[in-house]
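Lecture 7 notes: from sequence to structure.
We start with the chain below.
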Amino acid sequence: MNEPLVQRHWLTLAAPKAAPALATSTVLILGRIWNANGAEHSVGNAALMVVLAAGAATAGAFASAGRAGDPVIAGTAFAASGGLALAGVAGYADGLPLPLLLWVLATATAYGIAARYWRTDRRDTVAYERQTTVRREEHGHVERVEALRAGAQIEVARSGAAYAEQLATALISRAALPGFNPQALTDVGLPELPAVHITKEH
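Predicted structure tokens for the same chain:
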């Protein structure tokens, strides 16, 4: 069984690797735009971002400590909390050094978290490919064995038919000769063949 080979575009392969940096960079850019539009040194805006970030972190803590312990919800909540904190600092601060520092930390943390999921996904993919290869080899082996067995049975049947035809031809030819005694063949153990009936009719 031949399966089609699917080769994905390099952008499709690179997009998941660039997603954490794109996300943190987007938050930083939006925070600086917000800063330029009046958020700099705005206590109310900073307090709002602190409350939102704390709420997202609390939701992530509850999601990770709950009975189900859903890692997707917890990771999403913690990522939202970090993004809100970064956006708040980028919007409140009057210079770039602190927002850039937080951007580097947030990006490194995002890649650290994503690397664990990438490793898990890679292990699952390798295990699936290995199982698929083993199943394909087993099926191929079974098909080859069955093909050999069927070929052997066909060859045996063909050989048997050819032998029977040759034997019948020999008996018919022998029966046409004078002095043929079919009882002598029966006495030595050969089965009675249709050729014997043909000779009796003649």
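Points to note: The radius of gyration is 42 Å. The CA atoms of residues 175 and 199 lie 6 Å apart.
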